[in-house]
Amino acid sequence: MNTLQLTVEFDLEDDGRWIAAIPALSGVMVYGDSQDDARRRVLALALHVLADQLESGELPELPALSVSDAA
Asked: Domains in the chain: how many in total?
């Protein structure tokens, strides 16, 4: 089974909101009220994107996922 490794990158905006992005998945970027909130939201969006890719045939099978925060 293939493993898809995703890295979540965070940035704190001047207004206090957190941005979380997964660069390996185009367009997967969200805002959150806290870093934890942004992480939950970006992971939910990533799962939706992967489900769409699986359904459309872009992914041949559902890979095992490994998610880590950027250092």
From this structure: 1
